[in-house]
Structures are given as C-alpha cells and as structure tokens.
Design brief:
single chain; 334 residues; alpha+beta; five-stranded mixed beta sheet; 3 helices; elongated
Length: 334
C-alpha cells in the first residue's frame, strides 16, 4: 500500500497536480453511497470538472462530468462556484469502487486533479458519521458524532484549511471542542456558528477521513409570528365568549324543549284517557237506565180445609206476580 501511494505521489508531481484538494481515504460499507467534496482554485471556477475512475492518472476512465451531468444512476456531480467546491456522489458501492480522481479539465494543457481511495467493507465502516449533511443556526452550536474502529489521532478539519486535533481549537473563527466520553466515538462541537462556517469538513481518525457538510442559517423567529397572531386575534377575542355562551344556551334550550314537549304530550294522553273512561262509564249508566227493571214477588198460600178438596188438602198453592217498570229519568250515573 505504501508503494502504491508513492507511485501516486510521483504521478501527481509529474502531472503538476497541486490546486485540487480532497480527502485521501474513506471507509464505506458495500451497497451504501458516499459524497466526496473536491476543492479547486479560483482560476478553475469556469472550467469543466469530472470524476475519473481508476488507480492510474493516464488510464482512468470518465465517470461523470459537469458539462454532461447525470443526476440518476451510479454517479452524479455538482459544482458550487461560490465555495469553489465540486462534489461527486457514488451510489451502490461495490468492491471495484476503490480508486477515483477529482479532476479539473485544462484546455490546451495537462488536467489538474487529486486522487482518493475508498475502502469498501462488508461490515461497519472503520470511520463513519450519522449523516453527511448537518444544519445549524447562527450563534448556536452543532455536534458531529464520529464513530471509529481504527486507531490514531482524532480531529476535525475544514476542506482545504486548518484542522483541530486536540481537545479544543478554532476553525475560521468558529470554536471547536473534541470529546471522547463514549468508547469508539468522539464528538466534535462547533460553537458560535456564523454564516461563513458553512462548508465541507471531515472527521479524522488515523489515516481515514469522513466528509461532513455543514449548513448554517438563521433560526426562524417566533416573535414576529406571535405578534401577528395576537394582533389578528384581538378584535375577535370579545366575540369568542358570546359564541361560547350562545352554544351553551342552545345546548340547554334543546333538551328543555324536548322535555316540555314530552310533558305536554303525556298530559294530553292522560286527559284523553280519563275523558274516555268517564264517557264509557256514563254510556254504561244510560244503557242500564233505558232498560226495564223487573220486580218479581213470589208467595205461597195454604188453602184452608174448607176451600180445597180432599185431594188437594196436602198441596200448597203458589202465586207469582211480575211487574216491569221502565224508568224515565236517571238521577245518578251509578
């Protein structure tokens, strides 16, 4: 591996590569994706940039170019001229995705570029982060957790600029502290973020690096929204209790009306039933009054011995008188 790197450095010296800067070695798991930033000088702002695949400068093959961008598929490329950084993304990594070059095309001369190596693993990468994209707010802080399995010095570097490798330091006026409170994890804290703090950084552990992009913006203010809300709602506030009272009154009137209706119907039914009973009783009394009353008077008389014959001497004579009287008036119903 050392011999291989020496050959690369010789090639870099021969081709005059010096103003393109990128990471040197990154550990990635097979099947994942990785984004690599490549920084260039201001003189290359309007030049074509491209990613070249292969371990040798002269024999590498084009993967993707800024004048022929491919946003889908295995490779993609974008150029941020303000930051003077172009980034390449490689998806679905395999064991053959190990050697690449970030290159700036020079018309009429030798191209300018820098080599980087991808260490593809089937297990957890030797150096990794949760996300390659992190967002922070001006004046506040962010934490970058760097997970490692290898040995060596820990640190945070800004691409093309200085590094902090101790417990604390500063990068472009932004305070940086490094803590290792959990095994196999060191946490980088960037305090007092500024707009200028936005850019590409990378965690360092031994010979490995892992790129991380930091975006710093203003935190959305809630004071303006609260003021707007109070101003808008103030004319409506007096109406809200009336609406609530109206709703409560309606909720009382409806069941009360139903109850009154039920009581009225019940009284009406009771009154009709009572009237019906009285009518039936009166009708029955009238019927009885119109019918005749029959009186029956039954008596018996024993004949004296002088008035009956000898044969009839032992027999009694019974008399029956029936009188039917039809009443004309009824003084009482019952």
């Amino acid at each position: 591996m050392a011999v291989h790197l020496k050959i690369i450095f010789i090639l870099v010296g021969v081709t005059g590569v010096h103003s393109v800067i990128t990471v040197s070695k990154v550990s990635v798991k097979a099947g994942d994706s990785i984004t690599i930033p490549c920084r260039y000088g201001s003189e290359y702002m309007d030049h074509v940039k491209y990613l070249c695949k292969g371990s040798h400068w002269k024999f590498c093959s084009y993967a993707v170019k800024t004048n022929q961008p491919r946003s889908s598929g295995k490779f993609s490329i974008s150029d941020d001229k303000k930051q003077r950084i172009f980034t390449v993304t490689i998806k679905d990594l395999t064991n053959t995705d190990t050697d690449y070059w970030c290159i700036v095309e020079i018309n009429g001369g030798a191209d300018d570029g820098q080599y980087f190596h991808l260490s593809i693993t089937t297990d957890t990468p030797s150096l990794s982060v949760d996300h390659q994209e992190i967002t922070g707010f001006i004046g506040e802080s962010i934490n970058i957790s760097c997970y490692y399995r290898n040995s060596g010095q820990s640190g945070l570097c800004r691409l093309g600029k200085n590094c902090v490798t101790g417990s604390s330091g500063s990068i472009d006026g932004t305070s940086v502290t490094i803590r290792a409170t959990v095994p196999n994890v060191f946490t980088v804290t960037m305090n007092g973020l500024k707009t200028e703090s936005s850019g590409w950084y990378y965690c360092v552990k031994g010979e490995l690096q892992m790129p991380v992009h930091v975006t710093v913006t203003e935190r959305p203010t809630t004071t303006t929204l609260a003021t707007r809300g109070s101003t808008t709602l103030s004319p409506i506030d007096p109406v809200i209790p009336e609406r609530s009272a109206s709703i409560n009154l309606k909720s009382l009137i409806i069941p009360l009306s139903v109850l009154i209706f039920i009581v009225i119907v019940s009284l009406f039914i009771w009154f009709m039933m009572k009237k019906h009973k009285q009518s039936n009783a009166k009708s029955s009394a009238m019927t009885m009054a119109e019918e005749g009353v029959t009186y029956c008077n039954v008596g018996y008389k024993r004949e004296t011995s002088g008035q009956r014959s000898h044969a009839e001497s032992d027999m009694d004579v019974m008399y029956d008188t029936v009188v039917t009287i039809k009443q004309q008036t009824v003084k009482r119903a019952s």
